[in-house]
Amino acid sequence: MTSPSPLQVLMARRMLATCNPRQIREDADLTQAEMAVLVGVSASAMSRLEAGNRKPWSKTAVRWAGILAQLQAQGAIYDRAIAA
Predict the structure, then answer these.
(1) Considering all CA atoms of the chain, what is the largest pairwise distance in Å, rounded to the nearest integer?
(2) pLDDT of residue 75
(3) Domain map of the chain by residue range?
(4) Which residues form the HTH cro/C1-type domain (predicted)?
(5) How far apart, in whole angstroms, are the C-alpha atoms of residue 71 and residue 78?
């Protein structure tokens, strides 16, 4: 992955600050270890990131926010299908 643009980093960090990453992960039935693999960090780093004890590097923030956005979208599609 090439370096993300400043705008991508800003948008990713804004999303991470305004959403609940843990809730999104749990709603998708993923463990912290599974999320860590998707994001490309260690399980202990994922734990610290999710707890807010560490700010993600730019590339990590963009990857993590992208994964969370996909999980949210999939959840919304599933919810609409169930409601129909």
Answers:
(1) 41
(2) 80
(3) 6-83
(4) 22-56
(5) 10
3-state helix, strand, coil in the chain (%, to 5): 75, 0, 25
**Per-residue pLDDT tens over the stretch 21-35:** 999 999 999 999 999
Sign of CA dihedral 11, 17, 23, 26: positive
Contacts of residue 50, defined as CB under 8 A and 6 or more positions apart, other chains included, come to 21, 22, 25, 32, 35
Q: Which residue has the tokens 């991508």?
A: 8
Q: Which residue has the tokens 């990590």?
A: 60
Residue 58 and residue 3 in contact, taking contact as beta carbons nearer than 8 Å: yes
Measured in residues, the chain has a length of 84
> What is the C-alpha separation between 33 and 45, in angstroms, rounded?
10
